[in-house]
Amino acid sequence: MSVDAATVRRIAHLARIAVADDEIAHLQGELNTILQFVEQLAEVNCEGVEPMTSVTPMAMKQRKDEITDGGIVDDVLRNAPSREGNYFLVPKVVE
Amino acid sequence: MTELTALTLAEARDGLRKRAFSAAELTDAHIVAIERARALNAYVIETPDAARAMANAADARLKAGEAGPLEGVPLGIKDLFATKDVRTTAGSRILADFMPPYESTVTAQLWRDGAVMLGKLNNDEFAMGSSNETSCFGPVINPWRRTGSNKALVPGGSSGGSAAAVAASLCLGATATDTGGSIRQPAAFTGTVGIKPTYGRCSRWGIVAFASSLDQAGPIARTVRDAAILLRSMAGHDPKDSTSADRAVPDYEAALGKPVKGMTIGIPKEYRLDGLAPEIDKLWEQGVAWLKAAGANIVAVSLPHTKYALPAYYIVAPAEASSNLARYDGVRYGLRKPERDVIGMYEQTRAEGFGPEVRRRIMIGTYVLSAGYYDAYYLQAQKVRTLIKRDFEQCFAQGVDAILTPATPSDAFGIGEKGGADPIEMYLNDVFTVTVNMAGLPGIAVPAGLSSDGLPLGLQLIGRPFDEEALFALGAVIEQAAGRFTPARWW
Fold this sequence. Notes:
A: mainly alpha, Histone, subunit A, B: alpha/beta, Amidase signature (AS) enzymes, eight-stranded mixed β-sheet, globular
């Protein structure tokens, strides 16, 4: 499988990465090189093979459902690029 | 005082306990060495004042007889580990000003045991790279040079700053992380020892995530013993990482010197790649001879799915990365490029904040997870991963204790030499190491010789899950036979 220019634009948008028009051809070439490289996986017979979900067998731990953290508003907001009071600020979403 | 930096971590630890020198003196010697070695670009931030304060506190505890296992030992920390109130960037512009209000579990355990932080070490952006050339701080220069040449070489990656700093004696040991070979490959390129422990051995909490099912922390050090000492402090269960293993951490240092007589070492035929450099092959044969001489049994083994590990990795790792790196959106921390609408803000922020390699991997990951392609790529890769792991399990079930392979297909290459036109060329660096991450196993790289150009080469030992002790015992045999390798100072 290989990607065309329209697919590169669609992936970039899904990934939320702005891509300029003059970058498309270059990116398309690179992505197709990688996709061509991984293509060989198709030749492996995986019939009846379970996909890996955990590399080491382990039972998920459970803990009591209780509050163990919090009350650190200043720490949470400390690295915010833009804030007002105790809120993160973003550009207007709804007109 | 500079001779203090030439000590091994174990020698420094013992000297501090005997009060042969103080932690303050040891730390000062390293601070001076770091200042003189800025040409290597190994440290992205130096923290001399904090280091001196930590060293003074260590001296007080040493005096009071309350020394921890690493009391007064100065270390470098890969800039992928969150350090409280010390800038943590993962080598990315998108985190250029990030100040963690918390400490990673691994580094917290090092400070608990008395270690001193000298600063943060350069790495490939988000640990994506095999040469340390993708860092927003620029490349790290390998302290090693080819015989008779001044050409700048890469230290390997992604833990290139860690490996270079350890090789150049700018710290006694360093933390590192390994997703596809990022500890073992730079260790091999710099003549240092690096171990990626079993998945789950070290907590991932507070380490900037790349591919969560593959990421694992480990040390880079100048000797096998030093790596064993560091791993004991770094490892251990952490309730904050649900994938960290709840089992006791052995005294790894005690595993050194344990007899390897009677151990069975597998030599996988699939690692004898077409076109493998003759000097790598020769090094491998030398390693076999050393282990045989120490009384180990050598057997040929087969890991039939080896050739599919790298392509499967380049689906699984980018897929997990695209999901993990979705958090960098310019809202809660990191870079923001202002735009009129919120989607535009996300897109411009991420275009500007991520470098080309990171953007490429996020896009590949996004594609293989997208509707219509998930089964063909991601699901197939996870099935192949099951087969890769099964290969190792069958090998261990036949009584193999560890597997010996080369660590890298070549010695260190020049800056800008690889991957410029074809990203796959760079990816092939990890051909011997990536299988180990895919199977969650422990792997150690130990220096074993010099190339015809006078550059270090390493061998890799792969162990059973949670049997890092066998790797330390076997690694010590190779180290003893091969000797240690130190670059001549030119910086």
